[in-house]
Design a protein that fits this description.
Elements: E1 2-4, E2 18-23, E3 31-36, H1 51-58
Antiparallel strand pairs: 1-2, 2-3
Protein name: Asparaginase
Organism: Paenibacillus polygoni
Length: 67
């Protein structure tokens, strides 16, 4: 199961948790949304395309990565 962020945006709630999507199969509409603190996110579970963004968030890099 991979974790992705919709549209490449990182959405945080009032507590600072990040909204994640979990899809069990891309051919089906099985979808789970959950908020997690960045410290609780296993980088290995993040898709390789989005992993650099999460690594920067964990390191508190706040520059724009992509336009």
């Amino acid at each position: 199961m991979r974790i992705i962020v919709t549209g490449g945006a990182i959405i945080r709630d009032n507590e600072g948790r990040i909204l994640l999507q979990k899809r069990s199969d891309y051919g089906k509409e099985t979808l789970k949304l959950e908020f997690k603190f960045i410290e609780d996110i296993n980088i290995e579970d993040i898709s390789t395309v989005q992993r650099p963004v999460f690594e920067d968030v964990k390191r508190e890099v706040i520059t724009i990565l992509r336009t």
